[in-house]
Design a protein that fits this description.
The protein is an alpha/beta fold. The protein has 10 helices and 8 strands. Helix 4 links the parallel strand 3 and strand 4.
Length: 256
């Protein structure tokens, strides 16, 4: 049996990052030697640059610890923004981080579709699909996948995300699943988790899921044939070493 790949999204330590007590190298050291992990899940705010020379240092830090990069989560690169200047800036940022993902050996790069409304207009949707196809082709050509996550904007609706995935229809495009982070009732959110599972390339387990329906979520993903990393995401910004450990221990136990 293949051992599950566990990771911790570095966003889980954003309190330590903002207080100057952790950087990406400290994060990798923490994951490898405090928690015994061999896979990282980097939120791009932990990267001070996308310059290749800097990224080479990060790649070296991964390699010397025997770690892989399951996921690179990219903020400020969402495809749709009402401001055309922001759209252009975000596209440049998306390309920079796709190249970074390739250099760092990421298995998946998450880029959001964008829009703060409940759904996309036809013009917005067409623009998002077009951009994502280009990004997915780059990912496919460089040996990884990229895609969206159900954590804000129209992507939180299963109807919207399903429509997006089916319109893009590209082998380089997949979904990062934040378990239970959908609009709707508890039953509707669970149904969305089940429905999206065959398309999922990466996962994020928050505290609510780890302390709640964890066993059923793990069983559901395994039944779908999920092969990606199982990644903890913590949100409190306080007592992060201990609270992240608690979530990680729960997830570890569920995967035994």
């Amino acid at each position: 049996m293949v051992m599950p790949t566990l990771s911790i999204m570095s966003y889980s330590f954003r309190g330590l990052l903002s207080s100057g007590q952790m950087d990406v190298f400290g994060y990798l050291e923490t994951c490898r030697y405090r928690y015994g992990l061999e896979s990282a899940d980097i939120w791009n705010r932990f990267l001070v640059s996308t310059d290749p020379e800097y990224l080479a240092k990060v790649r070296n830090a991964l390699d010397e610890r025997g770690m892989s990069l399951a996921d690179l989560c990219v903020d400020q690169a969402h495809v749709w923004d009402d401001d055309p200047e922001v759209r252009a800036r975000n596209e440049a940022n998306a390309w920079a981080h796709l190249r970074a993902g390739s250099q760092l050996g990421a298995r998946f790069v998450r880029i959001d579709a964008g829009s703060r409304r409940e759904t996309w207009s036809d013009a917005e949707f067409d623009h998002i699909v077009s951009r994502f196809r280009h990004y997915a082709q780059f990912a496919h050509d460089h040996g990884f996948r990229m895609g969206a996550e159900n954590h804000w904007g129209p992507e939180k609706s299963w109807v919207n995300l399903k429509r997006l995935y089916e319109a893009i229809d590209h082998p380089g495009f997949g979904i990062s699943l934040h378990l239970g982070s959908w609009t709707g009732t508890d039953d509707e959110r669970h149904a969305a988790d089940v429905a999206v599972a065959p398309w999922v390339c990466h996962t994020h387990f928050d505290q609510k899921t780890c302390e709640g329906p964890l066993a059923s979520k793990v069983a559901m993903l395994r039944a779908s044939g999920y092969e990606g990393a199982w990644s903890v995401e913590h949100h409190s910004g306080e007592e992060e070493y201990v609270r992240v450990a608690n979530q990680l221990n729960l997830l570890r136990a569920a995967l035994v």
